[in-house]
Specification:
- This protein folds into two domains: 116 residues, no CATH class; 108 residues, no CATH class.
- Helices cover 79% and strands 0% of the residues.
- It is built from nine helices and no strands.
- Helix 2 runs antiparallel to helix 3.
Amino acid sequence: MRNEAQLAGVIAHESGHFLRRHMIRSWRDQKRKSDIFAIGAMAAGVAGAGAGVYLGDYVQLAQLGTLLSLFAYSRAMEAEADAMGARLIAEAGYPPIEMANVWEQLIGEMDASAAYRRKHRRRGSLFRVVTFNHLMPAFSFVLAFYVLARAITAIRLLSSNPIADAGALSHQVMARLIEALALLMPALDSWTQTAWLFDQRPHWSTLLGLAAHTALFMLIFASAAVFDMQRRNL
């Protein structure tokens, strides 16, 4: 921002969100559409079960349409906040064109920053960048990996025993993708079994297999990390 009018434009834009009750309207719209989708999905499940037809693909398409409609509603509210903000700063004696200048400057700064990064980009360590410069994405990735590794056996079981229409092309493709994913994921549920704490002790062959499996994945991750740290020298 380069002058008082531009600062007033930013404040007026946010005031427009408040005065038009956009947060409340957005929450109500999200709740209404989510309820409609939930009722529709339940009805589709009951109807499909009664008719012996798999409707899961249509339910997923409906879910995607619901999400896209929420984004469209958000863009409409941004436009409404811009219009109201321009009116507010005009009433306060500032030129409304300064609101457009703010967004133009912001886009220009983003383009310049992206061009600078492209020009001065260095091939550093991907693992190091993800870990230290983006802590939340790195934490989210590790958590998602852990949850998926813990649940991969259950996911494979559900995939191999569908409720209906096991011969559907979409189910066969999904089942093959899950099996391919299982080859890459460690089945962490086999590492810590509740029965070992109460009823029985694990056999030495089981522990040996788990140790070998652990060593294999540690070798894979260590190799990936070393390769990533040495990429600039390749």
